[in-house]
């Protein structure tokens, strides 16, 4: 793989911001790797604060989703989203208008790779989004990730497709960057492994979140301080396979919460398409002590049927569904949360389920 430049030629930062000035508004943009819950954002935020970069405001139309520590969680990490869909439907325009960012952190394209969207089509979507960012703010600073490796067991070709996209990003960035609005490539690939840094071959675990935050940090600090950087080089290689997830497209919606003592659950439609959808449930510890095991239950109203579920142990009796914690995510500290997801079919209607949670 060709050498990958973090800063394209001619890019110059000019965003040194006095502490008394308005905060620099930073928008994390992407899919479920950025959101759901995207705890690398919490690590990055707190590292910025600890290093004295306190005049920063993370922005977006989506709120924080836990992570167990206080942080500024606003973001545009839309679970299941394809960057090509966001571009084709002009979804970013409204998000930009709502948040007015100065800097965008974009890790986007994993679902497009999974869906076998051609690299050239993905890059064309990147170009359209950059144009929309500059229409919102002509001096937008744009940090674009070479995406983390992916190795879902259902997509043997995904690893190589991700390599092809990452190989093409530096040249695209060099052609797209301007002195007023630089495009900076951040290598999120090198040193990241699906076996040790994801929980399913695609989405980062705690170790992966740390690596992602560590890669964003110097590039973002340079955007804040006005000091450009040169990129590390890397040669992507396909990572080991792992348990799959599916991330289709749609605009997420938040639905019902029915919390018994000490445990609450929230369902989110993370993506819907003809005949199918991706659901996501966040389990939160609302008690005063650590939660050691949880069980979530609901009943589908319209004959929906789960075909795949991750981060939990499911069982079903007709329309009634029970999901218990996996062996590794049952212990939730006070104020903490855990998330599981699933893919299901639907016909005619797809009424969101009312989920309940019980300890144990």
What this model shows, in words?
It is globular and about 60 Å long. The longest helix has 20 residues, at 206-225. Helix 1 packs across helix 8 (206-225) and helix 5 crosses helix 6. The termini are far apart. It has 360 residues and is of the alpha/beta class. It has helices at 40-50, 83-88, 91-99, 110-114, 119-136, 158-176, 194-197, 206-225, and strands spanning 24-30, 56-58, 76-77, 103-107, 141-146, 183-187, 253-257, 263-273, 276-285, 291-292, 294-299, 305-310, 312-317, 320-325, 331-332, 337-345, 356-359. The strands form 4 sheets. Strands 1, 2, 3, 4, 5 and 6 form a 6-stranded parallel beta sheet that branches. The chain is 26% helix and 26% strand. It contains 8 helices and 17 strands.
Considering the chains and any ligands shown, give keywords for the structure.
360 residues, alpha/beta, 26% helix, 26% strand, globular, disordered N terminus
Quick summary:
The chain has 360 residues and is α/β, with parallel strands linked by helices. Helices cover 26% and strands 26% of the residues. It has 8 helices and 17 strands.
């Amino acid at each position: 793989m060709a050498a990958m430049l973090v800063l394209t030629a001619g890019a110059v930062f000019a965003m040194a911001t006095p502490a008394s000035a308005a905060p620099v508004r930073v928008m994390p943009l992407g899919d479920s790797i950025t959101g759901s819950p995207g705890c690398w954002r919490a690590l990055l935020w707190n590292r910025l604060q600890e290093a004295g970069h306190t005049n920063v405001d993370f922005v977006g139309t989506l709120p924080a989703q836990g992570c167990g520590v206080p942080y500024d969680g606003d973001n545009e990490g839309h679970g299941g989203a394809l960057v090509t869909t966001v571009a084709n439907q002009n979804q970013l325009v409204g998000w930009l208008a709502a948040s007015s960012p100065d800097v965008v952190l974009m890790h986007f394209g994993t679902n497009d790779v999974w869906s076998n969207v051609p690299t050239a089509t993905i890059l064309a979507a990147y170009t359209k989004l950059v144009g929309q960012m500059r229409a919102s703010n002509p001096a937008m600073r744009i940090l674009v990730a070479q995406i983390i490796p992916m190795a879902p067991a259902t997509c043997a070709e995904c690893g190589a497709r991700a390599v092809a996209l990452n190989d093409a990003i530096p040249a695209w960035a060099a052609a797209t960057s301007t002195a007023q609005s630089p495009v900076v490539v951040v290598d999120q690939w090198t040193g990241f492994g699906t076996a040790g840094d994801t929980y399913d071959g695609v989405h980062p675990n705690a170790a992966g979140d740390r690596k992602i935050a560590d890669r964003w940090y110097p590039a973002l600090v340079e955007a804040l301080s006005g000091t450009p950087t040169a990129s590390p080089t890397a040669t992507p290689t396909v990572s080991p396979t792992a348990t799959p997830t599916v991330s289709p497209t749609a605009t997420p919606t938040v639905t019902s919460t029915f919390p018994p003592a000490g445990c609450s659950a929230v369902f989110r439609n993370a993506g819907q398409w003809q005949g199918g959808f991706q659901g996501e449930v966040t389990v939160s510890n609302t008690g005063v002590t650590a939660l050691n095991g949880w069980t979530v239950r609901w009943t589908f109203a319209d004959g929906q049927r789960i075909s795949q579920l991750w981060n939990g142990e499911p069982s079903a009796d007709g329309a009634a569904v029970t999901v218990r914690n996996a062996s590794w995510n049952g212990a939730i500290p006070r104020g903490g949360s855990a998330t599981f997801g699933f893919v299901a079919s639907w016909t005619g209607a797809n009424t969101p389920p009312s989920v309940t949670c019980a300890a144990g």
